[in-house]
Amino acid sequence: MEVQDVLNSIIALFKREMSDKLVGIYVHGSLAMGCFNPYKSDIDLLVVIDTRLTQDHCKAIAKGLLAIHAGMANTRGVELTIVLDENLQNLCYPTPIEFHYSDFHREKYEKDEHYVCGGVNDPDLAAQLVIAYHRGIRLFGKPLREVIPPVDRQLYLKAILYDIEDAAQHIQNSAMYYTLNLCRVLFYLREGGIASKREGGEWGLNNLPTEFRELVQHSLDEYSEATVPTALYKSQYLALFVQYMQEEIYKLAKESESGSARTSI
C-alpha cells in the first residue's frame, strides 16, 4: 500500500466511524516536512474531534488501523493521536488526548480488543501541534489555523525538552534519532525555526563544533538510507556529544524562560 493509499484509507475510516464528530485530519512530522523515508519514518497524523470518544469508537478505530497496517508492506507504520478541540483552545501541558495509536502500541491492540491508549496526558503533543500548525498538511476538514490558536512558546519548549531529556541513557541504541533531534532542538533555540530532523542535522553540519560533524553526517546518511549501517560509535564519543548539546540547549532554554513574556509560535 502506497502512502497516499494509507492516507485515503485513514480518511475513509474516520469519516465512517466519526461522521459529524470529525473536525479535521492533519499530517505532521517528516511526511509534512518533505523528508519522509518509508523505512525510517512513521506517517504522523493528528485527528481533531468535537465529541469524546466512546469505548466502541476506540475499538472500531483500532480495528480499522490494524487492517490498514496489514497492507503497509512498503512503509513503517502510522502514529496517530486523537484530541478534543476543546482541549486545544486553552492548551495545557501535558495535553489530554482521547486516543493514541503507534507501532509501539500496535501489538497490544492486536492481542487485546479491549485495549485503548487514551484518556491520558501526552507530553509530546504540544510539539506535534506546532509542526502541524506551521508546516502540516490538511487531509480533511478545516485548516488547523481555524481550529486552534497558536501554541504558547513555553509549552512547545517543555515538549521538545522532554523529548531529549533521556538522550544520555538511550543515544547508544538510537544514535540517529537522538543526534538529529538534539540538533533540531538547538536549531530552534538559536535560530527560532521549526525544523525536521533532517533539517536540524543539516544545520548542525555547518554550526556545531568540528569534532561532532562526522556523527551528524553519519546520522543524516542513516536517516536517508533504507538499510541500517554497520558502523558504531563509541559510548564516550556519543556521551560527549549529548553533554555538549544538552548544556547548550538548557542554557538557552533557561535564558528564554527567564527573559521573555509569554509568547506564541
From TrEMBL:
It catalyses: spectinomycin + ATP = 9-O-adenylylspectinomycin + diphosphate. SUPFAM superfamilies: Nucleotidyltransferase (SSF81301). InterPro entries: AadA/Aad9, AadA_C, NT_sf, Polymerase_NTP_transf_dom. It comes from the Bacteria. Residues 146-247 form the Adenylyltransferase AadA C-terminal domain. The keyword Flavoprotein does not apply. Coiled coil: none annotated. Pfam families: AadA_C, NTP_transf_2. Gene3D superfamilies: Beta Polymerase, domain 2. The keyword Transferase applies. Keywords: Antibiotic resistance, ATP-binding, Nucleotide-binding, Nucleotidyltransferase, Transferase. Residues 15-63 form the Polymerase nucleotidyl transferase domain. This is Spectinomycin 9-adenylyltransferase.
